[in-house]
Amino acid sequence: xxxxxxxxxxxxxxxxxxxxxxxxxxxxxxxxxxxxxxxxxxxxxxxxxxxxxxxxxxxxxxxxxxxxxxxxxxxxxxxxxxxxxxxxxxxxxxxxxxxxxxxxxxxxxxxxxxxxxxxxxxxxxxxxxxxxxxxxxxxxxxxxxxxxxxxxxxxxxxxxxxxxxxxxxxxxxxxxxxxxxxxxxxxxxxxxxxxxxxxxxxxxxxxxxxxxxxxxxxxxxxxxxxxxxxxxxxxxxxxxxxxxxxxxxxxxxxxxxxxxxxxxxxxxxxxxxxxxxxxxxxxxxxxxxxxxxxxxxxxxxxxxxxxxxxxxxxxxxxxxxxxxxxxxxxxxxxxxxxxxxxxxxxxxxxxxxxxxxxxxxxxxxxxxxxxxxxxxxxxxxxxxxxxxxxxx
Length: 392
Prior knowledge:
Elements: H1 2-21, E1 28-31, E2 37-39, E3 54-59, E4 63-68, E5 74-75, H2 81-91, E6 102-104, H3 107-111, H4 113-118, E7 131-133, H5 134-143, H6 147-158, H7 161-174, E8 193-194, H8 196-206, H9 210-215, E9 220-221, E10 230-231, E11 242-250, E12 254-265, E13 268-279, H10 285-301, E14 303-308, E15 313-318, E16 324-329, E17 333-337, E18 342-348, E19 360-366, E20 369-375, H11 384-389
Antiparallel strand pairs: 1-15, 2-18, 3-4, 3-13, 5-8, 6-7, 9-10, 11-12, 12-13, 14-17, 15-16, 16-20, 18-19, 19-20
Helix pairs in contact: 2-6, 2-8, 5-6, 6-7
């Protein structure tokens, strides 16, 4: 009998020890709102798509508002310089406001100026051994569309244009730009082709680079040597919330324009990115005009609804053992969209096992909207008793 009792005690001790040794379940955040998505009532907006070429409009965090004109690759002209700047800044980052290293213009670039001038290319007009900071070089590239600087940036980066173009194409593949091929860093070559949808993917990525956003938000190129200002081609800057973009034109491409605009809707900051390609005219202005109509229409279609007011309880930390704590949104939850759009509501973050009341432990997302989640009360670790009696 004693042996049986001893065996039972050993068994119980083993079970108890095993329960305590087992790691506690990972806590998780559960949404407690009545719905996990919101559908805006009404019919999807009809944007004023141009009658020719192709176009696309995308709202960051929400998705594509629409496209037109198919997806056949078409010459990019100087819109290719968005990728040139993106690749260069990816490998040579600039901090906010930083001028960056000083670069020296090669004799090769200077020797090509007469040829570029004869072909009517847009240029800065570099001279041999001219010195430019990285920021000024990129401003010349993006604001006045300097072809001479585009090719020089390629040489500064990897020593030759072919290797740089390979990096441009590699970056395009990484961004999912499946209908894009780069053959040169300036876009003058008509074999450099892309689509409106692909260019939207690129500009979305580029606008996440702070230095790129600073550079393309300049109306004019201001030389460091005190020379005259030169106006940029993006005449929509400062209108309709437009904060950046790039124009392009060649006889083969027609007029092209990519643009980014910021619009605050019921306190939620949204980013609208669009592209217009293949507008048949004698300049890029037809594409800019089409872009103006698209961005204005897209902005007017945006609407918002508040799903939860400030301090409302919308989620809960679950410790996996029957305990946890409710979570509230400090700034409320407002979702932005357009008629006919369904926006998912989700949770981001890894909650702690314990925390103080008011501590941020995650984020609730609704399309472009994001709101911090804070503990409504203190969160305690699971008690020893709960760990002992848990099953599973």
